Amino acid sequence: MEDGISRYFSIASSVQDDNNFELHIASSSSKDSIINNLLRMHRFEVQIPLGKAWFRCDSQRPVILIAFGSGFSYIRSIFLSCLSTHREQPVFLYWIARDEQSFYEIDMINKIAKKNPIITFTKIIEKRMKTSVQEYNKTNKILSDRHPDMSMFDIYIAGRNETVKALIDKLHANNKAKKSRIFSDSFSSSE
Question: CB 159: neighbour CB atoms within 10 A?
Fold first, then answer.
């Protein structure tokens, strides 16, 4: 960016979409918003994606996708990639947000889930999005009740780095999730 500070965004488009590169960036009315800065710039530099956050299309494991807040853009990409592979294994999508308005693509997700019997979509409202995963009571209960043994799943998680790291540890300790089969957005939180 013009100020010399790097900004990180998760790619929201499917890996099969060769012609488009979609990012979800929160809007703001501020003249200094990221979108306004990008529109003013004549040139900007893009780095290749970081981390280990790509869909393992060769895996035959069922998939759990967990998106905290704006982490939905990364999970959306994985979700769309899952669909494009015509998989038969179940896909469980959990989108956690602070209010109804934050589910900005809920209609698209519901429509896809209704048409596809392998998809189970759950939206979870956590009134106050926290940095500590222990404080996500509703989310923790739903995940534990539905998936007490996650050892056979590929798990993709996106959200605040500290929340993701804490959830990875919790799922490994309490739900038998294999850390080698947990994948996260840009900063490789599972390492």
Answer: 25
